[in-house]
Amino acid sequence: MCGIVGYIGNREKKEILINGLRELEYRGYDSAGIAVLKNNEIESFKATGKLTNLEEKTKEFTSIGYGIGIGHTRWATHGKPTEINAHPHAGSCSYVVHNGIIENYREIKKYLEEKGVIFLSQTDTEVIVHLFEDNLKTNCSTFAAFEKTVSELHGAFAVLLITAQEPDKIFFVKNSVPLIIAKNEENEIFFGSADAPLIGNATNAYYLEDGEYGFISQKELKLYNNRKEKLPKFKSLAQDKSYAQKDGFRFFMEKEIYEQSSVMTEALMGRVKENQILLDEIPDGFLNDINDIKICACGTSYHASLTAGYILERVAKIKTSVEIASEFRYKNPLLTKETLFVVVSQSGETADTLEALKIAKNAGLKTLSICNVDNSSIVRLANANILTRTGIEKGVASTKTFATQVAILWLFALFIAQHKKTIDQKTLQKEIDVVLSIPNVLKIENQTHEKIKRLSKRYLHGHGFFFIGRDIFYPLALEGALKLKEISYLHAEGYPAGEMKHGPIALVDSELFTIALLSKTTLFEKTKSNIEELSARDATILIISPEDFDIADDFVKTKYSDHQMREFFEMMVVTQLFALEVAIRLGNDVDMPRNLAKSVTVE
Ligand code: AGP
């Protein structure tokens, strides 16, 4: 995810900005840039890759003495990770940095292009600076032009803008994406998209709220919401950097579980419009002549793919097979050109998945990747790509990646259904409403986490875990078991609930823990019977369900819903928190479990 910094003061701005960006490196980025306004002139530098490349470019540049500056690390979402697409983006006398997504950037771009504005980048961000300069022509003050610009943007955004017209001010706005203003006793002013770059520099901070915008100089801070002036309440800033990088959570994995709601908002942004699914990444005609789909992936990405297998056949009415990439590679698969070959990968570098993609491409199949890292080997190779926009995932055990992969695959299924007209408008509208409710479903209630934390103490021993579920709750059971074994080192298996009686039930006794995903929307009575079969053999059972079931030894209650995907995402969070709390109690390094690597680039 992108990072933002800003500074007003007398110190060397390039150092403050680049050091600030370094504190945000943990968020992941593929390019970086700064712009410094001093003596009425703005100088800007951008570089792809690591911050050392930006340092190299700014080697000869100095900016001591009073001035202002903004900086940015970019994680590509709109347009490739190139220098032109890196921020800051420039107009004729202004520069902007931005986190988030401008949903209506196409409309704004078209409007400005018709007026003769020339765009250099492929980003949504560039429209902000040109729209601002266009508004400058018709508004009486710089701030009025900024305020008008802000009112014309839709989406999620944190923005800093500087302009030679007002050489002592930074203009800012925050909407659904974090942005913090901080200051110190020397009257220096700092901006950050997280605490980390502010710590050690500033003493007090104001965490902007959604919809707030304004400007700041060393003389004044003006803050507004809906054109009404507000008074900011600064509070003292925590001073522990590593704590700040984890946003106060104990582990990155915990932070990533909690950020799934906001990450999901970003993943969906611009892809769901009132009554239709828009996937601009799929070229026109791409789905023509496609009869079936084959998906290949590994690990968590494989579980997301298995989930999609159910949805694609049910919603899009298209035959779908899902294979583990390492198996697919060596089976001499029979491939036909009417098959769309899809690979799913967080890193885009997984060797087995990449090789599977090569096999399909060489056989002349159309290929699509669902991936989190732009410009990765898989993205470069596939014919089309849908980025999951999950931001960097630091925890080796994937959590938010799984959530966005499932959501994007679900959108893809709806997109095909729309294209093939296998869904009527009313059902599509209902699905869209459910899709848009998922960020809310992913919000974690304190009492749920507390309950899981408490009950986890009873699951630290025993001779194994079975996670069971039916339909899409079966791949979720596989993923729940994978999470637990990755970070707790306890033996756990995911199983289809109806399959237990065909062998695994022989293992059942009171020391065998069963985590049952009991959906109310999907095969409720059938799954219930399967749980009863295990209970009759004295298994210790934790049931995750909206419906109370008296044979449960432990119970985590989820919300009633009329749609299986809402249940799916809520239960997903419960299984993630369960794995996390068991592993923490066992004293394990949750973020870096033994024997595992984040990106598996070997066979
Ligand atoms: C999941 O927690 C693991 N990190 C692992 O299974 C991972 O999903 C797998 O190695 C595939 O990685 P990819 O998504 O980057 O291709």
Structure description:
With 603 residues, this protein is an alpha/beta fold. It has three domains: 3-239, Aminohydrolase, N-terminal nucleophile (Ntn) domain (Glutamine Phosphoribosylpyrophosphate, subunit 1, domain 1); 245-440, Glucose-6-phosphate isomerase like protein, domain 1 (Rossmann fold, 3-Layer(aba) Sandwich); 444-603, Glucose-6-phosphate isomerase like protein, domain 1 (Rossmann fold), CATH 3.40.50.10490. Strands 3-2-4-1-10-9-11-15 form an eight-stranded antiparallel β-sheet, covered by helices on one side. The protein has a seven-stranded antiparallel β-sheet with strand order 5-6-7-8-12-13-14. Strands 19-18-20-21-22 form a five-stranded parallel β-sheet, sandwiched between helices. A hairpin with a 3-residue loop joins strand 5 (89-90) and strand 6. Helix 3 packs across helix 4 (126-138), helix 9 (299-316) packs parallel to helix 13 (400-420) and helix 15 (446-455) crosses helix 18 (564-585). The chain is globular and about 80 Å long. The mean pLDDT is 93. Residues 298-301, 345-347, 350, 353, 396-398, 486, 599-600 line the site of 2-deoxy-2-amino glucitol-6-phosphate.
